[in-house]
Amino acid sequence: MTFKKFVKTVFFIEIIKGLMLTLRHFFSRAVTRQYPKEKREPFPGSRALHALAKDEAGNAKCVGCGLCAAMCPSQCIYIYTSEGEDHKKIVDRYEIDVLRCVFCAFCVEACPFGAVVLTDHFEYSDYSREAFYYTKEMLLDNWDKYMAGPKGKEYFKKFWRPKSEDFGLAVSSPNKSVQESSSELQAQAGDRKAP
Ligand code: SF4
Ligand code: SF4
Fold it and tell me: Which protein residue's CA is at the shortest distance from atom 8 of ligand 1?
């Protein structure tokens, strides 16, 4: 044992230093937040509950191409489509099993139309598993609740790249070539069915 270490041991230097630190923090302002009474604004770009985006006319932007479901590593997105008038694809059901989601945002990045988003709403606990199975209607409702107005636009502008315009594709009004390419990709991925 060195002399320095001997002195430290005999005079309890380390213990005194520790107590001094405790004492210093004892009189400083507490940083503990009294959640849920005290809430903090989520950080910009937070990834929480999903929503399906609507355009200015209030229609769902999703065209049912299936890219998001194909990219999802948790395979928790289920899309059911049918053929409407003029051979137009109709999205009958769009469902997300949120409990399986890992919030990677691959679905948001994969979507050519900015049709699926991760909002910053994180307080959605419940007592049943069923409550976390979000249907198309619930997801569209989430858009109105948490992302409507400039918030949704800002969110996309700031935090999500690449976007469809990076590839020369339209964002809000999908053109024919996009739908065609989407159909090809969907044919490769195949419609995913719920278990
Ligand atoms: S955030 Fe990731 S895991 Fe969750 S639905 Fe999207 S792609 Fe799937
Ligand atoms: S990638 Fe976008 S447009 Fe295609 S099915 Fe998913 S949310 Fe809809």
Answer: 72
